[in-house]
Amino acid sequence: MMVRVDTEILAGVWRRLLVDPRKSWVVFEHGTCVVLTAPDGDLAEQAIALLAEFGPVRAGTPAGDFGVIDARDVDGWVVTGHHHDVLTYVAPDEPGGQDNLAVGMCGRSKRHQDGTELNVVHVEDQRGAAGSE
Question: What is d(CA 110, CA 79) in angstroms, rounded to the nearest whole number?
Fold first, then answer.
């Protein structure tokens, strides 16, 4: 069973997880975050285009692959996919088990949902912060 996480909690999780505070990023309804390395124009539209291409799972292709990272600054995990700027947060109470396979399958499923539904819940625009140092 997939649990939908509160938008403010998700935004706070990603603020703690993302190392570079100058990066802009967009969070989708089920916890997937798209980091925008070259933000331009409407950030939500840019993230939607990227997630529409790299979010849906296609069995037997790199789109089905995943990796699991133990999060240091929050409880839970980050699940990676075939695009290094598309990451999915998995809370400790979500997967059916605590092993990498259960966590990875949960994260991959959440990424697929986000990549097909494409519901943006938060945009973190840091374009102005890049020149502040």
Answer: 10
